[in-house]
Design goal:
By secondary structure, this protein is an all-alpha fold. The chain has one domain. It has 8 helices and no strands. The protein is elongated, with a radius of gyration of 18 Å. It starts with 11 loop residues before the first helix and ends with a helix. 26% of the residues are buried.
Length: 171
């Protein structure tokens, strides 16, 4: 059996880093969508926050970091007492089935940004779109990559582990 790396230690800095980038993404997305019609920006922000609660309820309880208390985003701190895993479900299956709840938070702002660039061009909308995309599609994945590389959640679809490790863990 291959040795498995130890999970990264969670500290205040990792929680702040993960959440600051995500909150920045939601604020930028709200501003971008709000340029089309300001109430839409508020609806987007409310949905984004609600989608994270649903993610904590539907997916987090099945992650290995949830039980260990090592979630880089600290979601386990917010939700461990409220949401419990149900027997027969795994992180991989729940992630594949229910991660769609986060997709609008990531993809509605670029769609709104493209709409603004075509129909209501402004340098502000171009800047917001560029900063949103930089944060959402480069910074957030880059920052979480280090945590994912040391993750011991074998069935994670985001960062699949070596097939030999998975097979050695099965009965």
């Amino acid at each position: 059996m291959l040795p498995s790396p130890l999970p990264l230690k969670r500290n205040t800095w990792t929680i702040l880093r993960e959440n600051t980038l995500q909150i920045l993404m939601y604020i930028l997305g709200s501003m971008l969508i709000g340029l089309i019609w300001w109430p839409l920006g508020l609806v987007y922000l409310a949905y984004s926050l609600y989608s994270n609660v649903l993610y904590m309820a539907w997916i987090c309880p099945y992650c290995g970091h949830y039980a260990l208390g090592t979630c880089a985003a600290g979601f386990d701190i917010l939700s461990r007492k409220r949401f419990k895993p149900q027997p027969g479900k795994t992180f991989g299956s729940e992630f594949r089935r229910k991660s769609w709840v986060l997709y609008p938070g990531w993809f509605l702002p670029p769609i709104a940004g493209l709409y603004l660039l075509v129909f209501q061009f402004s340098w502000a909308s171009l800047a917001l779109l560029a900063i949103f995309c930089l944060d959402a599609f480069w910074l957030l994945p880059e920052v979480s990559k280090k945590h994912c590389e040391n993750c011991e959640t074998v069935d994670c679809p985001r960062y699949p582990k070596n097939r030999k490790i998975r097979q050695s863990l099965q009965p």
